[in-house]
Structure prediction request, 190 residues.
Amino acid sequence: MKTILSALVFCCFFSCLQAQQITPYIAIVKTNAEVRKGLLYKVDSLGVVMITDGDLVTISTDQIKTIKIRSPKKQASVIQFLKYDPWNKNNYEKRADGAIVRKWGEKDPTLGEEIGGHVATALINVTGNILAAPIQAINPSIANFKINGDAVKYAQQKTDLNYFSVYYQQNQNLTAEIQKIKAITASFKP
Prediction:
């Protein structure tokens, strides 16, 4: 009974951790004077708070022209297009008399054929990865917001922009609860 209860508590704790996964998004904010790039931390009615070079930077709404949201780049990986392994188990089969022979009556490769196969495979894999590297480096914007210093446009797009902030992702239940409390307390009379 005790182990079942502890397993249940562990499963509940683990599922809460899984549900609380936060995805940081990169924000590229174009202002009247410059372009700032950083992690989108918080969106409020006064502006956008970003983390750039380890510092919190607040950009007010009247300075913002556009905001582009990007997901973080995934680590580039090496792709193996071809694999050359002449001694793999799949190249052999067992005959009825129990002897292990190559499939389809093939002969074992000579040393020159084996080296040539490895060199050709390596050349094809390197060439393919060189061609694939620029494609893997592409990181398009997933959302664009045009503000042009207008507080009304910013207020209209604030909730959509808020979904990408780290603060909202950490406190989304808290934000909903505060809105409910404000709605309830608005009807109270002192």
